[in-house]
Design brief:
Elements lengths: L3 E6 L6 H13 L2 E7 L10 H11 L6 E6 L3 H7 L4 E5 L3 H17 L4 E5 L10 H9 L10 H11 L2
Bound molecules: adenosine-5'-diphosphate.
Adenosine-5'-diphosphate binds next to helix 1 and strand 4.
Length: about 160
């Protein structure tokens, strides 16, 4: 049986912390789908298509990882993809409460889907898309925090 995991998120934009989680998941599953949520309510900096394209470019070296988008209930998307698990990243205790609530709600909605939490390398625990955007907006160097295609896109997008 082919084991598939879905890694959902806003990925606005993808960071090296996300990539670290993706690489770990890619070792455990036959197929990993990075599923970019539309999330218009969050007023993303990058449009859905841009976020998916940046994920695609950044995971090109990982043969069992794909990029996709979704705008439905996550558990429905997981079933449609014939996946068994949802992967989420945990950086610190501050992530826990929300992630715990989300995981238990998704289990209520479909008890056959497991949520798996992965911890990134310790150097990425302080990283978030929000902080990367903030640094880039103020002209700071984000090359240590994001893949090269994301760095170029941030510079293009935030050029005054
Ligand atoms: P969301 O809006 O769904 O939280 P994000 O793109 O911010 O989407 O994050 C997607 C997932 O990746 C979440 O589980 C989040 O906790 C996790 N994540 C975000 N940044 C990191 C990081 N630096 N290291 C590990 N996991 C992370």
């Amino acid at each position: 049986m082919m084991r598939t995991a879905i890694y959902p998120g806003s990925f606005d934009p993808l960071t090296n912390g996300h990539l670290d989680v993706i690489q770990r998941a890619a070792k455990l599953f036959d197929r990993v789908v990075v599923a970019v949520a539309k999330n218009e309510g969050k007023h993303p900096l990058f449009a859905l298509k841009e976020r998916v394209a940046l994920v695609k470019k950044s995971v090109a070296h990982l043969p069992n990882v794909e990029a996709d988008s979704f705008d439905s209930l996550l558990v429905e998307y997981v079933v449609r993809q014939k996946a068994q698990a949802i992967v989420r990243g945990l950086r610190a205790v501050s992530d826990f409460e929300f992630e715990f609530q989300l995981a238990l709600m998704n289990r209520k909605l479909n008890e056959n889907i497991e949520t798996i939490f992965m911890m990134p390398k310790d150097t990425y625990t302080f990283l978030s898309s929000r902080i990367v955007k903030e640094i880039a907006r103020l002209g700071g160097d984000v090359s240590a925090f994001v893949p090269v295609p994301v760095q170029s896109a941030l510079i293009r997008k935030l050029k005054p």
